[in-house]
Fold each of these.
Amino acid sequence: MSLIPTASQTVGPFFNFALTTNASLGVLARDGAKGERIFLSIRVVDGAGAPAPGDAMIELWQADAQGCYAHADPNFSGFGRLETDLNGCCTFETIKPGCVANGSAPHINVIVLARGLLKQLYTRIYFADDPANANDPVLALVPEDRRSTLLAKPIHGEDNTWSIEIRLQGEAETVFFDL
Amino acid sequence: MRKRVNEYPRTTPGSQPEYASPAYKSTALRAPSRPLIRLPHSLSELTGPVYGHNPIGPTDNDLTLHFPEPPQGERIIVAGRILDEDGRGVPNAMVEMWQANAAGRYRHQRDDHPAPLDPNFLGAGRMIADEAGNYRFVTIKPGAYPWRNHNTAWRPAHIHFSLFGPAFVTRLVTQMYFPNDPLIPLDPVLQSIPDSAAQARLVSQFDLSITEPEWALGYRFDLVLRGRRATPFEEAGK
């Protein structure tokens, strides 16, 4: 038998009472998790530069500090999920992932769901100025002038806090992946 | 957690909506305008979360039991199987669903449709499908509701579904519709799917074998996640 995967439909604007009631899904690394603890602030904006006000959802999937997805750290989950606030922002508390394989740079896998997105968007978040970025095989597939759209940057004056904008469309549109 | 050694099959043309779908106006500023960059599947794509953060309660899949009194509306059963591309049940998939109430209103702070909220209906359920991929929800039939996409735009009655399969690439968020709904041919969200057979697979089927006599009508809705059996599974150890 050969079946065709079910078609995607938009998550719509009214998902939060079902999908994002558990704010603890914003905390991937609880106290005691091994690794470099970070705050990761993500802002989702549309093609006109307007934030997605409470009608977008971000899901994260990442390796632990040793680069393992099949991790054994009970204080680290690897999965996060938050809705954007009225400013289009959400902030996760996690650890900086390790390198998954030889040559890969630390990265977080991202799914974007929103009103107006008929199917999920896949992207990745890397960390600016990480020397491993130079050899990452996925970044190598991205035209050089667009790689910066995948780089979270440290927020000056705030320890261990990184931010990135996910631009759905237009100038400086984030690189999205076909998986 | 498990991993696959090889790639998942890629999307069949026409079976998924395009991001840019002019009839659905919210896509105008949100659909990416640049081509997606195709990635080979690595561990990052072939692994996926075990969704264990939220313990599932015993009544989480019966939306008529979330309050002391039953909700208003026509009680229904929605059941089916989570399958892979070989028609094999996907074991233990996390299934979440949510919907409007019988009057067509969501319990959401920004739903301003002038229809009554039901104090006895939240409209959100979840469960873990069994080893054979079977799931079953008891709920009430959601109402249609207007939206501002175009003049006299009404969404057909629908239930939202969210599923996690075994990998990051098996994530699926979709909507289930009801048979013989006159709004279906007019709905820009469902009509965004180019292939009409793929559209039709989002319409549930009335099913007497799911129906419970003297109690509730039954609807069957099967969902297919990406993936084939041919690829061996192995524990991801590193």
Amino acid sequence: MSFYAHVEQYGNFDFPRFFEGVSGDAVERSLAKDKLGPVDFLNLLSPKAAEYLEQMAQKAHRLTIQYFGKTIQLFIPLYLSSHCSNQCAYCGFNRKNDIIRRTLSLREIEAEARAIALTGMRHILFLTGESPFHTPTEYLIQASECLKRHFASVSIEIFPMDEADYRGLRQAGVDGMTLFQETYDPEVYRRVHLAGRKTDYRYRLDAPERGARAGFRMINIGALLGLSEPRREIFHTGLHGRYLENRYLETEVSISLPRFNDTEGSFKPDYRIDDKSFVQFMTALRLFSPKAGITISTRENARFRDRLLYLGATRYSAGSCTGVGGYAEVKMQQSPQFEITDTRNVDEVAAAIVAGGYQPVFKDWDAIV
Amino acid sequence: MENGPLQLGHVTFTNRLFTGTGKFAANTLIPGMLKASGSEMITVALRRIDTTARSENILDYIPRGVTLLPNTSGARNAEQAVRIARIAREAGCGDFIKIEVITDMKYLMPDNIETLKATEILAREGFIVLPYVLPDLPLAKRLESAGAAAVMPLGAPIGSNRGLETMSLIAILIENCRVPVIVDAGIGRPSQAAAAMEMGADAVLVNTAIATASDPEAMGRAFDLAVKAGRIAFLAELAEPSAGASASSPLTGFLH
């Protein structure tokens, strides 16, 4: 069994026709339900449901407070390497890009960890491109062990791995993984992933499940919004989350909604997701999966992130550098993987959360296990 | 019946509302909530305690005189719960421990089997063990024999605010357990807390409903009053409900 069967199930589904046919009554019925099925989820993702945005927001707000309280979990990303053998049309680390590439040495990781720890951050997410030569499993294990000495929680956002490798990282202290499918549409996936291991759609799609089997306590999924028709992407993301929740009861599932922002360079995505649609998608996800975490990165700007507190968000990154390293040393000129638009430091993000009436949570996990 | 205090381990509680530290908009709300509710015991997840970092330490917001009930939230099995309990004690959190072993992130159901194993070990080590469980009489009796100081059955899934969905099972525990029965989880309204106390529960633990209220102090006070009212009603021996109004002795009155 794989989530792929669900993707296939909707392969021939006529989404545009379904969305066109959604009535106000259907949206209201779905809004009133405690447990939403896939059809309800589609109703709330429909253009018609945009007319019910405030009701969706109110319910999303209420459910989020019920299950998560007035809290936002904070984490900080650390890029270990920009070396990459993949050729992803939209990514700053694309192997065809002529950029200065770096991989941090263990000593440099140690220095970065010390510098980040001074900000008060206790949950860290480390990232790499996909280059088995520059960042082999052994390197990743050593990096994990190093970071574990400085942080309560260490998560990964790296290339998909076999279950055994995930297990190795789990034993080295990693407790969570983030992996975006980028797009659930196999055809679009093929078009934007031009070379490298990442061309394997299925291997990536099944990776969160391998991670769950390897024992990660938290798994964060998402689609890079803009690559393909976004309502479908959110629909599949939500179904993927539910698939994981239903099969891996020990795993906490979180969902990200990364979208291209205007500051990004050469790649022109086919779809633009405006703020209103973003909020509709996010609140629809919350209503469909009341207990799933919703992660918002610094791709979103400060003003918008401050509003998302009330619309279902549960986890924020803060103080992020999206180039390799960058916390310990004066930033050298280098190309980021993506552009951040919330450039506030950790203290400023935390202060904004407090000002919004929420508690920034720096630590809610200890890998005593 | 007299409204005596509740004894758990070596500590005597006059207030029967226990509270929690999770989900508050700010930790600064906790001292006021404790004062307003009169709660004398508050639970905190060891995983939330951060003594090393720059960020604030939640323990600084718990006044002296309020007993700390560290919990093992995050533990997936008995071994992890035991380890967390030992760390909590070493960190100066006292001898109380609420065992929370959860392997199901979907409904947050307690794993009764692992909880029993952890209770057996920790009670032997001198902890005052409060296990969070699904209400199950044979299990509760085994927890008692293992040395649990109380049993804490859930009313409904954590954070669900659905009230006493397990009422009839909890009633069986209340009737048959020698240790106190503390209803934990699911209580969303003061009236539900009152109902638990009316049934004869020895205490209730309420977190979400207080922490996520727009005025946690006022909600804490409301729960305090409800718990007290329920307790008094229980002690005054509630009349059994009946289907309708009835004459005092319609069938046998002629005999007098």
